[in-house]
């Protein structure tokens, strides 16, 4: 199965990051994820990310760092996630597609039912944070 390319944003605010819950009508219903979406033909991953976050959350973000790609095979679809660490630069959060969102500490993430592809993203983000603090 050829993976589809999907961007996702780990939006940082102080010591917390934003996660959002997919709706019942989306694929992976009610799973928690990092907001984002499919990369369009001819679009760069970072342009896709900025567009998707504006569409889904109504806010502008700027990219701080790119994390390693993660490919995951679900039973019916395969995805390659392009994760970016971001900060919000303007706008007020309004959910256009998700049913819920919350700001969480890294340590609390394991209590949310995350999409399976996001688990390695959380691990690489944790490594990124450790390296940031070591500098
Ligand atoms: N956005 C996002 N999608 C994820 C994550 N983890 C994960 O497995 N996925 C999967 C769910 C979907 O199968 C796919 C992304 O599809 P999507 O429905 O969010 O993308 P989109 O907004 O471009 O969708 P659409 O316009 O076609 O409705 O990637 C994640 O952290 N964020």
From TrEMBL:
Reaction(s) catalysed by this chain's protein: 8-oxo-dGTP + H2O = 8-oxo-dGMP + diphosphate + H(+); 8-oxo-GTP + H2O = 8-oxo-GMP + diphosphate + H(+)
Cofactor dependence: Mg(2+)
Cross-referenced InterPro entries: MutT-like, MutY_C, Nudix_hydrolase, NUDIX_hydrolase-like_dom_sf, NUDIX_hydrolase_CS, NUDIX_hydrolase_dom
Swiss-Prot/TrEMBL keywords: DNA damage, DNA repair, DNA replication, Hydrolase, Magnesium, Metal-binding, Mutator protein
Domain Nudix hydrolase intervals: 1-127
EC primary class: hydrolase
Source superkingdom: Bacteria
UniProt xrefs under Gene3D superfamilies: Nucleoside Triphosphate Pyrophosphohydrolase
GO BP field: DNA repair; DNA replication
GO terms, molecular function: 8-oxo-7,8-dihydrodeoxyguanosine triphosphate pyrophosphatase activity; 8-oxo-7,8-dihydroguanosine triphosphate pyrophosphatase activity; 8-oxo-dGDP phosphatase activity; 8-oxo-GDP phosphatase activity; metal ion binding
Cross-referenced SUPFAM superfamilies: Nudix
Pfam families per the UniProt record, alphabetical: NUDIX_4
EC number from the UniProt entry: 3.6.1.55
Cross-referenced PROSITE patterns: NUDIX, NUDIX_BOX
Family stated for the protein in its record: Belongs to the Nudix hydrolase family.
UniProt-recorded name of the protein: 8-oxo-dGTP diphosphatase
